[in-house]
Design a protein that fits this description.
The protein contains 9 helices and no strands. By secondary structure, the chain is mostly helical. It has one domain: Four Helix Bundle (Hemerythrin (Met), subunit A), CATH 1.20.120. The longest helix has 37 residues. 36% of the residues are buried.
């Protein structure tokens, strides 16, 4: 790894990790969360940071980490704090904290991409980093919606669809073809985030939170279906173009 890239990435990731620890400890003290909240939050952030550092040398084409990736690290930091709420009781401040953290991460979505384009540092690494942060946010929110009793077990599908798709691509190579940029895909991801944030909101009863989550899941499922159909048709056309006449 280029030394400048390593230094600039660690200069962002290490303070973010420290911030996770400080915020988690303050939340534990002042919001009556379980003592394990600190360890859970730090562990999730450390795991994500390790994946980022491993992927940097091969997939990041620039000599520095860049402002866009720094924003994504902040979003990942907040997702780690959100993930730490898994296992917390719903009769504490955990649901309110989940809404606050989830909303900030959702609001910041798009800022990293804008910064990447503005600084001319857009890269497949940054796009994947952003996408996986979104996927982690959706998965954690879905788990919390279920654990807080705001939707049935089916709500986990909101977060698992992405990982099922990735798993299927191991067996079906045509699923690994790069998809073209899509405003529809981006918009539906936002819809899914908002739907799950609404679902975990304490003031929203289960009679409304479950339908909100279901709307998000329906939109996300249709988006995945459209992408899979496009990938299948693209693979079919590619095979036809190379077949002997």
């Amino acid at each position: 790894m280029h030394h400048g890239l390593l230094r600039s990435s660690l200069a962002c990731i290490l303070p973010a990790g420290l911030t996770v620890g400080v915020i988690a400890q303050l939340c534990t003290i002042h919001l009556a969360l379980e003592p394990a909240y600190l360890a859970k939050s730090v562990a999730v952030f450390a795991a994500g940071a390790a994946v980022v550092l491993i992927g940097l040398p091969r997939h990041h084409p620039f000599a520095t980490f860049g402002a866009a990736n720094q924003v994504t690290v902040v979003r990942g930091m907040l997702v780690a704090l959100l993930a730490g709420l898994i296992g917390e009781r719903s009769d504490t401040c955990a649901p309110v904290l989940a809404v606050v953290l989830g909303t900030i991460v959702a609001v910041l979505d798009g800022l990293d991409g804008w910064l990447a384009r503005r600084s001319r540092m857009a890269s497949p690494f940054g796009a994947r980093f952003d996408m996986e942060t979104d996927a982690a946010l959706i998965l954690v929110l879905a788990v919390l919606a279920w654990l807080f009793g705001k939707a049935g077990l089916w709500v986990l599908s909101c977060g698992l669809l992405r990982y099922v798709f990735v798993g299927a691509s191991v067996l079906l190579p045509w699923l690994r073809t790069a998809l073209p940029p899509s405003e529809r895909r981006r918009a539906i991801a936002v819809v899914q985030m908002v739907a799950l944030i609404i679902a975990v909101t304490p003031m929203v009863p289960a009679a409304l939170s479950a339908p909100a989550a279901a709307i998000g899941l329906t939109a996300l499922s249709l988006s995945f279906l459209l992408d899979i159909v496009w990938l299948f048709q693209n693979a079919t056309q590619a095979r036809a173009s190379v077949s002997p006449q």
